[in-house]
Amino acid sequence: MTTPIRTQVCIIGAGPAGLLLSHLLHLNGIESVVIEARSRDYCEARVRAGVLEQGSVDILTESGLGERLSREGLRHTGFEMHFRGQRHRIALDELTGGKAITVYGQQEVVKDLIARRIADQGQVLFDSSDVSVHNVETDSPMVRYQHGGIAYELSCDYLVGCDGFHGICRRQIPSSVLKTYDRVYPFSWLGILAEAAPAQHELIYAHHERGFALFSMRSPKITRLYVQCANDDRAENWSDDRLWNELTIRLGTKEGWVPNIGPIIQKGITPMRSFVCAPMRHGRLFLAGDAAHIVPPTGAKGMNLAVSDVIVLSRAMEMFYKRGNTRGLERYNDIALRRVWKGERFSWHMTSMLHTFPEHDPFHEQMQLAELDYYTGSVAGRTALAENYVGLPIEEF
Ligand code: RFL
Ligand code: PHB
Questions:
Q1: What is the pTM of this model?
Q2: With a 6 A CB cut-off, is 214 part of the ligand 1 pocket?
Q3: Which of 5, 12, 254, 381 has minimal CB crowding within 10 Å?
Q4: With contact defined as beta carbons under 8 Å apart, do 28 and 321 qualify?
Q5: Ligand 2 mean position to 49 CA, how many Å?
Q6: Count of alpha carbons within 13 Å of 74, Cβ hemisphere only?
Q7: Ligand 1, from 10, 35, 51, 163: best to mutate by most atoms within 8 Å of Cβ?
Q8: What CATH number does the domain containing 205 carry?
Q9: How confident is the model over 311-320, as pLDDT tens digits?
């Protein structure tokens, strides 16, 4: 037996995209249900992105989620690029009229969103199973799922796929309509969390002949570090000694700066991929976040693109539910995709400029160094990096 229920907007996936959308809709008096396959603990423990653009911080703050973020988030007014053993600073605030980024782990954003949705009596159905999506090409889309041993049939006005790259929603778009753009890079990142005070306040993106390395942090006591590794590499191949040695060589400067060393509390490999699907809307189904696009993490754009998709979609839904105006919903695909492609371009560019590629010859290597020289050595170059890094504006309808 199935229990039929109804809501205005059904959201699949309780990652940053689905949770933030549900929260913003609630603030506009629009009801939603979030269906999530995993447990609350699992969603809150996933260690992923760490950098929030200025616009992401602004929307979280304006929507009442800024309390812990303003206390614990680390505001950065610049970042560094290291190459040839020298440091080059990109002064984000000076180059963008006062904007900055904030280091605050994705799982902290997710914890804050879940706590707030629950405090607002929002429906976030963790541990749902057998989730399937139906009738998206009609006026009455519907989701079937099991929750707490009961089978439900949830009908809604609109369905939003916030179910990540491996979700089920993108597959609802017929192959005759769906176009995908894909690039898999010939390297991955091995990321670690270390119990060591960050040896400096700002992030470092390092280009080195032995491969890329990134210095970041999570708190005044925890350093987050990444090294470029092979796609078929495994975390077990990297002893702590090997990791610290490689990080010290790749990140270190001629004047003697090196990261602080400490016990490693987490290790994991992240593959690198660029992926976009179009359209991001089909009938009454909308896609947002990783369900529609993936970026390599070099530009720190993954979570931020999920946030900007959701800002556009929540504004479109507000226009529809408050004024009966469907223009925003009709423009969602164009507006979201244009910004997504700019985020894809920046992430691809940072990835191409900073990593070593197996197929590269000495000519390519000199091109990379010349690019790094140009982007760090001229105000125009630094401004281009800075305005993309803090986040490009979101277009109005
Ligand atoms: P999420 O966070 O993947 O959330 C999707 C949610 O949907 C659920 N789900 C389903 N629920 C019900 N039924 C189904 N059939 C379902 N299928 C899936 C999942 O359980 C999950 O809870 O997508 P969202 O919200 O779009 O957020 C996007 C961000 O998570 C993502 O862009 C970033 O984390 C990407 N990313 C990184 N970005 C950075 O900027 N810097 C990083 O260092 C960084 N590291 C990472 C990352 C992504 C990773 N993934 C996806 C493997 C490291 C990893 C490992
Ligand atoms: C992180 O802190 O995890 C991080 C920072 C910047 C990136 C990617 C990841 O570009």
A1: 0.97
A2: no
A3: 254
A4: yes
A5: 6
A6: 20
A7: 163
A8: 3.30.9.10
A9: 999 999 999 9
